[in-house]
Amino acid sequence: MTTLLRVEDLEFKQKPKRGFFKKQSKFTLSKVSFELNAGETLAILGENGSGKSLLGKLLVGAEVPSGGHIYLNGQKLSPYNLKQRCLNIRMVFQHSNESLNPGINVAKILGNPLILNTKLNASERQKKIEDTLKLVGLLPDHMFFYRHMLSDGQRQRLALAKALILDPQVIVADEPFAALDPSVRSQTINLIMKLQKDLGLGFIFISHNLGIIRHISDRVLIMQDGNLVETGKTDVIFNWPKSEYTEKLIKSHQSLITPR
């Protein structure tokens, strides 16, 4: 398989800030390295505060790393060239409401990134918006809707359309299903898996839901307190975990799904 994304020794050292009463603690993400192939899903798993969401932000350029390098198709990405990063690596957030402006309609939500990052004219932008809406299972007429007019599932599909509108090669999804009810969650998971197959996207899926991770991921990266604990193929990690921390996570998941 073709290596799409390569991360080498990526790290982040947060400078401590002083509050009114005490010095705030700093968070350090130790050196993390991994590869992502085209058409592959890498899951980043860990408890709250493990650094998994921070790692996602470093990949999309929302945070600047203290060290290390990110390569896309063998080309080094500059941590300061946000347009280069924005075009190729896009993010889907857990709460779609936070990423969708309630004051503008869907056409503008999807059209603004095209205006800022492409040379498409008005008619070409409209066609691109319609095609992307269809791609995620929405109707062309949805471009006239506002955020409050959409259901939770439709908002998450719109958030996915917003990530896809610039034809990225990698999608980073940070807990994209946590706020959805089970039936809508299942539909969204199936949609993402279909899009990945059809478009050859690389997916980085951040979660603590082991059931979903086991279902959709090819490989898993385990994080704890800002450190990379272990990584490997999903089946291998779930059946033969090397670290006590990974084994604890898997056993806690199995205790929830095993009938008493």
UniProtKB/TrEMBL annotation:
Residues 5-250 form the ABC transporter domain. Keywords: ATP-binding, Nucleotide-binding, Transport. GO terms for molecular function: ATP binding; ATP hydrolysis activity. GO terms for biological process: transmembrane transport. It comes from the Bacteria. CDD domains: ABC_NikE_OppD_transporters. Pfam families: ABC_tran. PANTHER family: DIPEPTIDE TRANSPORT ATP-BINDING PROTEIN DPPF (PTHR43776:SF6), TRANSPORT ATP-BINDING PROTEIN (PTHR43776). This is Peptide transport system ATP-binding protein sapF. It comes from Aliiglaciecola lipolytica E3. The gene is sapF.
